[in-house]
């Protein structure tokens, strides 16, 4: 699947349409806008599993970073469409560059070595293990005061 910017009206379709409808009063069919980085988060007994949809992105353009307890996913893509007439005159030439970024707080006790990630079929799967926090001690530790 390739990401393409959604356009409300097509220039040539408007030009060749009904001349009495020059201002586009006719309702245009709605086009689906691509939703970026749809994420499913599943909690298991030992971990949190993130499934992040990144259709049209290449693995080398997807980056994950852990800093101050935040897991940040960033992805970028570029595409180019070119259509020419038979004599080589451009009728349309479009370029699209896009990026998206999303952060999740996973806790400061998690390190990058704890996290596992895999990118396959346009889905980035990240597994973040649950960490047991040390239990607070009930007994107070008293300091002796000499005097």
Question: What secondary-structure arrangement, pairings included, does this model have?
Answer:
Blueprint: H1 11-15, E1 39-43, E2 47-53, E3 62-67, E4 70-84, E5 90-105, E6 116-120, E7 123-129
Antiparallel strand pairs: 1-2, 2-7, 3-4, 4-5, 6-7
Q: What is this entry, summarized?
A:
The protein has one helix at 11-15; strands at 39-43, 47-53, 62-67, 70-84, 90-105, 116-120, 123-129.
Describe the structure.
- The chain is mainly beta.
- It has a domain at 38-129: Immunoglobulin-like (Sandwich), CATH 2.60.40.790.
- The chain has one helix spanning 11-15; strands at 39-43, 47-53, 62-67, 70-84, 90-105, 116-120, 123-129.
- The strands form two sheets. Strands 1-2-7-6 form a four-stranded antiparallel β-sheet, with no helix packed on it.
- Strand 1 and strand 2 form a beta hairpin.
- It starts with 10 loop residues before the first helix and ends in an 18-residue tail after the last strand.
- The model is unreliable at 1-34 (pLDDT under 50).
- Belongs to the small heat shock protein (HSP20) family.
Oligomer: single chain
CATH fold category name of the domain at 38-129? Immunoglobulin-like
Q: What's the helical proportion of residues?
A: under 10%
Number of strands: 7
CATH architecture name of the domain at 38-129: Sandwich
Span between termini:
78 Å
Protein name: SHSP domain-containing protein
Domain SHSP: 27-147
Pfam family, one: HSP20
Family: Belongs to the small heat shock protein (HSP20) family.
């Amino acid at each position: 699947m390739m990401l393409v910017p959604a356009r409300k009206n097509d220039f040539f379709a408007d030009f060749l349409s009904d001349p009495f409808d020059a201002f586009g009063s006719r309702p245009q069919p709605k086009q689906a806008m691509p939703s970026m980085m749809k994420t499913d988060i599943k909690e298991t007994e030992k971990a949190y599993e993130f499934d992040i949809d990144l259709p049209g992105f290449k693995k080398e353009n997807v980056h994950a970073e852990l800093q101050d307890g935040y897991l940040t996913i960033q992805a970028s893509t570029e595409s180019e469409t070119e259509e020419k007439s038979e004599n080589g005159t451009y009728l349309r030439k479009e370029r699209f560059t896009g990026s998206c970024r999303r952060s999740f707080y996973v806790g400061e006790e998690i390190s990058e070595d704890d996290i596992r990630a895999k990118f396959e079929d346009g889905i980035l799967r990240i597994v973040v293990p649950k960490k047991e926090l040390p239990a607070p001690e009930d007994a107070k530790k008293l300091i002796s005061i000499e005097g």
